[in-house]
Amino acid sequence: MRKLLVVRRLSQLCFLGLFVYILWSTTYPLKGILPSGIFFKFDPLIMILTSISERLLLSGIIFSILMLGLTAVWGRFFCGWVCPLGTVIDIAGVFGKPKVLSDVQNQKARKLKFLILGIGTILAICSIQAVWILDPLVIIARFISLNLIPALTGMIDGLFSWMIRIFHLYGPVYDLYRGLKSSLLGVKIYYFSHSLIILSLFLAIFIAAMKLKRSWCRVVCPLGALYALFSKTALFKRSVEKCVNCGMCRPECRMGAIKEDISYVKSECVLCMDCVYSCPANVTRFSFVKPKLEEKSGGITRRQFLALGFVSAMAAVSGCKDEVLASRPKRQRVVRPPAALKEEEFLDRCIRCGNCMKVCITNGLQPALFQAGLSGIWTPQLVPEIGYCEYHCTLCGNVCPTGAIPKLSLEEKLKTRLGLARIDRKLCLPWKKGKDCKECIVCEEHCPIGNKAIKLKKVNVDGKIVSRPYINERLCIGCGICQTKCPARPERAIKVYPVMVDHGNSNKETIK
């Protein structure tokens, strides 16, 4: 029995299931036994390069350092036994007929991921956090939160509704449906803009894996490149005694780590153990051995990587950071979640994982495209025409893994300003239609502030008393509910605009 393969597959499925469960249970109220950002704490690419970009040590970075230490001993076990995206890629490989590359082709292909890692490091030193673009945990988290969960909940909910309506199943089936609505289907079925782009990226990775085993991990993954650097001298190593040169192990290697002479590139091995069971002579083993220098692998060495980092640091010292920040938008263009860091810091700290958007109970947090500039792609923005910031909700700060959205107590949240509402008198019905307008007090009615940030003033318009709304800027927190509920169409008559406030390290402004 192939015990190691069974254990590995169980490990992969368990971690993938845990990852999905954590994201699925991240909803209102928070039900999960583990915080939604726990997986990202074990991601050294995100934690370390974000810390470099922000010039601070993120909370939980010790877990990432621990992962690098374990990799230096065991090798790239994370890629083969833990990574959720790696598991999905392995599943994709089952449905295709992947080809086998030559040693030269493998050497050329795997250099790309080191180049991506090097560029990400340079950008981090220049205070640009860009590793979120290709980080595997971020990619799979975005797909699960913004594509998979809404699609599955929508399908299940629709199926039950159809069955109950068509077949009149108002007995046990309806009771089951009600039970699911309070548990599994309690996850809101939301719309997320640009979700098709997120789905397309995921599908591209999946389809590529059907053409070449672990193509993403071999060629692109910067997290895999970082783990490869630390696994070059790993103590846990593959050995082959009295090889019969049958060549059976080479096409089975999903990373192309086994070379044509049956030696292998240790830094590319993800410990899948396929070669152990594909060996007809049963002479392939994995065991701890004394460390020694490895043959040249075609990637880059740690010394070369550190040299690249040194050159990057010199570039940063020479003014790279200032030039980058100068090229960013001078003013905030979108409404950010409550108490989000100042725009420049927010763009560096946010990893675009989608946790805050998925947990937003009104669906108001949406991924930006170019509204916040090129550097703000897929960062969360409040879109009041879709949903508002619930007055008594603090979930987005609780699920943010990097602190880009700080945790707030409810008392702090109630006093935190996101933006400022403005009334367009050319569109507002009481202002536009005057005496012909029917009574409209929707914005004042829904304002959650105790003593109302939207005031109504009765005026005499051609002999008719009309209630016109005014904004009290001292009280308005920019939650956006007035814009969400405004009946004016096609364009809302009241809109929330971002307010840049310099209070320490965040956009937080306290309403007194």
Description:
- By secondary structure, this protein is mainly alpha-helical.
- It has a domain at 343-498.
- The chain has helices at residues 3-24, 38-41, 44-54, 61-74, 77-82, 84-94, 103-125, 136-167, 172-181, 195-211, 215-220, 222-231, 249-252, 274-278, 302-327, 343-349, 355-359, 395-399, 410-414, 429-432, 442-446, 481-485; strands spanning 236-240, 284-288, 365-367, 380-382, 419-423, 454-461, 464-471, 494-498.
- The protein has a two-stranded antiparallel sheet. It has a two-stranded antiparallel ribbon with strand order 3-4. A two-stranded antiparallel sheet has the order 5-8.
- Strand 6 (454-461) and strand 7 (464-471) form a beta hairpin.
- The chain is elongated.
- The relative contact order is 0.12.
- The model is unreliable at 293-297, 321-327 and 501-505 (pLDDT under 50).
